Amino acid sequence: MMNLKDLSLSELEQWCAERGHARYRARQLWRWLYQAQERVPARMTNLPERLRQQLEDETYVDAVWVDKVFTDRNTASLKAVLRLCDGVGIEAAALLYRFGYTACLSSQAGCRMACVFCASGQSWERNLSSGEIVDQVLRLADVAERPMSRVVLMGVGEPLDNYAQVVKALRQLHQPQGVNMGYRHMTVSTCGLVPQMHWLADEGMAVNLAISLHAVDDEVRKALLPVAARRHSLVEIAEAARNYSERTGRQITFEYALIDRINDSDESAQRLAEYTRAVKGHVNLIGLNPVEGCELMATPRAGQVRFLQKLRREGISATMRRSLGVSINAACGQLRRG
Length: 338
Ligand code: SAH
Known about the structure:
This protein is α/β, with parallel strands linked by helices. It is built from 11 helices and 14 strands. The strands form 3 sheets. A 10-stranded mixed beta sheet has the order 3-4-5-6-9-10-11-12-13-14, covered by helices on one side. It has a two-stranded parallel sheet with strand order 1-2. A two-stranded antiparallel sheet has the order 7-8. The model has no long low-confidence stretch (mean pLDDT 95).
């Protein structure tokens, strides 16, 4: 059985053509899948009977199934535990902001990056297919009863470690006949895989790029993000960041989780300001969220404010991220294999 949502529109046209159907049938089918969000081929009424039967016999329409939903009443944000066709579990979140819902998607079941403060890196199962990434958006919209306005690849997994499927998924979400989401409403977050950041700059899609920095010293960074930081230095990351923003015209965001007495000194703020200035980036601070099995603690509130002010005094554009979903373990670093 093939997963329909793993196909791009042109692959779907090919699939239809191979079965003797006109190409425009693929576009009709695409609308059923991504606009009407129809999950039963028999109900795709403008398709010929034979095509509906072939869909029934040869394909899966759904790529992920909702197992469980947790809702945070205070913020109207929710977390979905999702099941893939082989029984593997993942998690995704829908976070409500003023402009609407942001879908926080997983790109892998588990993660190979082993960052010490992140629950996602405590196990590894497999890469997700593009259909499994795209279908998370549709399932979250079902559950939230509202369409998702934005997508961030900040759930489980390192998106650039599953490069081809992630890029394919973003193109599928962009497809005008379907979800029709602008690339400016999509964000890829990476722990800093330098070659892939260069490839992404050449895809012609100008999605937002966020880089999980968390330290401005290579040795501290190696202790926190061992896999990523051993592969690439801060200098290489800055170079890739600069290239990305030059090629795409997008401002880079540096994510920086404030960790008590590890990366929150005035000197760290100073170095972060210089680093960010050199690539005209933006800094998004967050207090470290608690994760089971990790002893590290968030910088106390006063220290977080002080760090933010120091960056701003240096003329850096910086914000403090509101942590949505902590009560349902759906906040940054808290998503894991479902
Ligand atoms: N692998 C990608 C995307 C997933 S994580 C990446 O590394 O960017 C999304 C963000 O949450 C990253 O910035 C990650 O470093 C951060 N994060 C992980 N654990 C966290 C925690 N316990 N508290 C706060 N942020 C955390």
